[in-house]
Amino acid sequence: MKKSKLFIQGSMVLAIILVVNLLSEVAYFRIDFTEDKRYTLGKATRSILEDLDDVITVKAYFTEDLPAQLGYIKDELRDQFIEYENRSDGNFVFEFINPNTSDELKQEAIQNGITPVSINVVEDDQRQQIQAFMGVLIQADGQKEVIPLVQPGSGLEYEITTSIKKIILKKKPKIGLIESNNGVTISAIPQLIQQLSVMYEIVPFNLSDSSEVSPNYSCMIWISPNDTIPSADFDKINKYLDRGGNLFLAYSNISGNLQTAEISSKPDIGLKDWLQSKGISMGEQVVIDAACASVTVQQQQGFFTMNSQIEFPYFPQIRKFKKHPITVGLESMMLPFSSPLNIIGSDTTLAISALLQSSEMSGTQNTPNYMNVQKKWAEQDFTAPNQILALSIENMGANDGSMVVVSNGQFINNGEGQRVQQLDVDNINFAANTIDWLSDDTGLIGLRTKGISSRPLESIDDGTKSLAKYGNVFSPILLILIYGFVRRSSVQRKRQKWAQGDYS
């Protein structure tokens, strides 16, 4: 009877497995348990795919039998393509091609902008280099976009979706970069321009040479003007905002010089009063924060000069972000030499929201001042927590213009000439997200940082480390002893029952 029951149960299990496998051949689905829904297409992607008029053809040039640490990328890419295919109603077609199978396919991949990369592999205990292709060609209606190298941890959906949108976009929205009043020029922000140029046309703009700011500009960018701004220029910006225009302003009232260790206030160029008319005051203090980035300093140790890393509170590191479309997916930003922002005025029609704040352990220092790199910072130095460093203003004028103000102009400035520097990726992402939000293209914000995350292990004290160490050693032994004790007790109870004639 028992054997028959087991046979029936086994048959049912096998039948279920068979049905599931058959269904998997005709229906593709997966459940996404990731926190940020990394493997679920975002709203922007779904909308673009559902509205496709032309067929998007994708060729993924991928070398077969990649090393284990890279092989998963192809599987992940294929799964992503299947999701795109299912959403496109037949307007998304893809294929995988292994260029290593022939010289013709290698040449085809290279001509399409996909060049091989050198990868170290170990076979038969021998280390050797192979040439591997890991790129994607996306094309439609005579237009094409190339992802030359699909990298681990990259924002895969953002790259694919923006490539598709760039192909189907008939005319890019125009963004103006205000270069008048000695503001930052296009050549000084290559990282941001590269990010924005995917979806926008970025053009230089001079306020003094123009009679007005055209409403054809979906957004204006103004970074670190240094010369006095004529009232006529402010009038042009005000009229643009009143007509529903949008402005991204990145500026600080103070400047810091690491060479001279001096922090000073900038001369008023007119922005102080103008910002106050918008319900914002920008202080002339410098924000300090215990949650900060490090700088390299030279220290004398005996006869030797050593380079060492020290925490530098004048470089606030933002790791906690206010919930807002602009800050979606951001993990860390660095804002050197920033001024505090305050919300003032009584205009209830304006919607003003803080976007970036310093930590609970922060404060301000008056300027002018000098930075002491040898200073031993203490808790009493940080008595002004949560200083606002960036905010948004909505409902400006009759047509609901918007503005984002960041009290720092250096966080997206790469510099020029001999002073070019690479900036933190989230600094660029924040600025690009801001432009998307101001331009009312919020769908792509969440995609830009989706799937790009670091999960650093939290540091633990020595006591916890010791507990974990010895726990790992003795826990298995303890579990075996407990199991042995429980097992022995069970056997003894059975023997006692059998001795009493109870065989149940």
Count of DSSP-assigned helices: 11
Low-pLDDT residue spans? 24-28, 452-459
Largest sheet: 7 strands, mixed
Integer tally of domains: 3
What general form does the structure show? globular
Architecture (CATH level 2) name of the largest domain? 3-Layer(aba) Sandwich
CATH superfamily of the largest domain: Class I glutamine amidotransferase (GATase) domain
The order of strands across the largest sheet is: 8-7-9-10-23-22-19
Find the CATH topology of the largest domain. Rossmann fold
* SS-based class: alpha+beta
How many DSSP-defined strands? 23
- Rounded mean pLDDT is 83
Report what the structure shows.
With 504 residues, this protein is α+β, with helices and mostly antiparallel strands. It folds into three domains: 10-168, Glutaredoxin, CATH 3.40.30; 174-448, Class I glutamine amidotransferase (GATase) domain (Rossmann fold, 3-Layer(aba) Sandwich), CATH 3.40.50.880; 466-497. Helix content is 31%, strand content 27%. It has eleven helices and 23 strands. It has helices at residues 2-26, 43-50, 68-87, 103-111, 156-168, 190-196, 231-242, 271-277, 425-438, 445-448, 462-499; strands at 56-62, 92-97, 117-123, 126-132, 134-140, 143-147, 174-178, 201-205, 217-223, 246-250, 254-257, 262-265, 280-282, 286-289, 292-301, 304-318, 333-334, 341-343, 351-357, 362-365, 369-370, 388-396, 401-406. A hairpin with a 4-residue loop joins strand 11 and strand 12. Helix 6 (190-196) crosses helix 9. The chain is globular, with a radius of gyration of 30 Å. The protein starts with a helix and ends in a 5-residue tail after the last helix. The relative contact order is 0.10.
